Amino acid sequence: MYNLPIYNYLRKYQKENINIFHMPGHKLSSGIPQELATEVLKLDVTEIDGTDNLHYPEGIIKEAQELAAKAFGADNTFFLVNGSTCGIQTAIMSVCTRGQKILIGRDSHKSVVSGLIMSGAEPVFIYPEYNSKFGINEGITAQSIEKALCKNPEVAAVLITRPNYYGICSDIENIIKIVHSHGKPLIVDEAHGAHLVFSPLLPHSANQYKADIVIQSAHKTLPAVTQGAYMHINGSLIDIEKIRFNLAMLQTSSPSYIIMTYLDIARELMEKEGTERLFNLIEEISTFKNRLSEILGYKVLEGSYLGINTIHDPTRLVLNTSGLGISGYEAEAILRAELSVQVEMADYENLVLITTTADKKSTFDRLYESLSKLARIHFNDEWGRQAEKIRSLTGHKPFEALQALSPYEAYVAQKEEKQIKSCLGRVCAGVITPYPPGIPVLYPGEIIDSSKISYIDSIIKLGGKVNGVGNNNIVQVVK
Fold it and tell me: In what residue span(s) does the Orn/Lys/Arg decarboxylase C-terminal domain sit (predicted)?
């Protein structure tokens, strides 16, 4: 018996027959033809004659990237082996220099923070609309971007997230028109939307409206392996040579051929079979939703719950558990421990489940039975009181904060550690992020106010995880 903690646990997880609703999208290889999913280690090679070079592609990698560009409707496509994170960092560094401002949706992923630090750019935040029915953020509106651009004409670019973790898609067509009318490039973090282009039943991809930079995590919704992503470039506003240079600087000099191979496989499978597979998936989800509506206590996120000019990706299942009298965190724990279901993430009142073309009718039948059993458990009302507290905070934009220093200035400043409850008025030195979904509550350089302290404390008490908050609720602040 080998002493292999990671290997042994993962093999155990595989054998538990868990109903999987988390990334990566191949769902333990079930979404990939088995002849393409075996002997993976034999794909693990290096740059030798014939295998090409990711950073200077002239052969098979160049051909694969050109095929991807055609499939996703982009002018140029780059393979990413360090995930969408390095794509976001590259994008920011390619459009901004130190001291320049960039307009950013406040619901952006934490990878934006590292991009700001490395580039030295300064954020100007725009805020998403708030959905009180589910206690979540919706998309960034075209009107808020127009207003922010008029107020801040000096910004170098605009960066938004679409779709968000909950599958909510903002009005990308009008957003692109507005951003381009101001002569600015638009960066779209489409990490959760690599599948959108393959079905007319889904919201359009940002590529279809020629956003300047579109970054997609293939491993989230396609049959690709973790860290596999695409970076698409459109139009003439982006210096493509700067993109190449920054990607070569930020990505590993020993890129994984396994990751690149499955980026190629995901593209081919979706191009050939994606439309039919997604049609079948959406049909199964629709049937599942109809069945679930008969069980009291659940509310399923759909377009009817959203504001105008906002649509929902039907392949992203969001189940509100407030009607059961429990938090999403507690529901997630019970589903895994007692009912053999693992969701992608939970927040204080919702479960988020990633569905992909790997999922079948049996997947949803099992899920329905598990959720039926969960609904029959009696819970007390303590959670409801905590949830109302968080709702009141969320409804007043807990992410809005006063920026005392730029992210770079906070990064290089001297720091000290303090307990979060004693940090009122202090300047945050790190990134404080409930994870998942990975959206920072506090950026480096922002002042910690009472609403942030209360919000973070409530999330932890309800069982959520907050990155940047250590043991005994210790955080880093600027000295």
Answer: 402-463
